[in-house]
Design brief:
This protein is α/β, with parallel strands linked by helices. The protein has a single domain (about 10-125), classed as Rossmann fold. About 40% of the residues lie in helices and about 20% in strands. It has helices at about 20-30, 50-60, 75-85, 95-110, 130-140, 150-160, and strands at about 10-15, 35-40, 70-75, 90-95, 115-120. The longest helix is centred in the middle third of the chain and has 17 residues, at about 95-110.
Length: about 170
């Protein structure tokens, strides 16, 4: 009898804030993998709009699936993957410029850990233009981002920017 193999991948990112593009990658990733660890990057050198705990909760609330584990990490991704015992990374690509950066990152990670593998997934056509940075900027300037983020994130953005019409 063959031993069953559960394919697990880590989907790392800042998720500041979580967008519908991220949710699309999670949803589609679960068609390829049995289990996804969505790992929120805690980068103390960057000023995040939402805390790590808030970002983790946004993911849990927007995607309550037992096959999705939400975690956080700090430092090098390869160190985190070793601690988790998972060496398969899922990354979303929006444009050619994303690929160039992600290609460099994937090769550096493989240099640091020869077992490290990266799977690239193209973002869906309905969310290729969405980035967390753009959502933050549009929301802060009063633009309507309701169709770009899950409802729980939209509500949190309205709290962050209470005097803005759409954000």
């Amino acid at each position: 009898m063959l031993a069953s193999h559960v394919a697990t991948a880590i989907y790392p990112g800042s998720f500041d804030p979580l967008t519908n593009g991220h949710l699309s990658i999670i949803h589609r990733g679960l068609t390829m993998f049995d289990h996804l660890i969505v790992a929120v990057l805690n980068n103390p050198r960057k000023q995040a709009m939402f805390t790590v705990e808030e970002r983790k909760q946004f993911i849990r609330d927007a995607f309550p699936d037992a096959r999705v584990e939400v975690d956080a990490f700090q430092g090098l991704l390869v160190h985190y993957t070793r601690r988790k015992g998972v060496h398969l990374i899922l990354r979303g690509l929006r444009a050619v410029s994303d690929f160039e950066y992600e290609f460099q990152l994937a090769n550096m990670n493989r240099k640091l850990d020869p077992d490290f593998e990266t799977v690239f997934m193209m973002t869906g056509q309905d969310s290729f233009y969405i980035s967390s940075q753009l959502v933050r900027e549009v929301a802060s300037l009063g633009g309507d981002v309701a169709e770009l983020v899950p409802p729980n994130v939209f509500r949190a953005l309205r709290v962050k920017f209470p005097n803005k019409n759409g954000g």
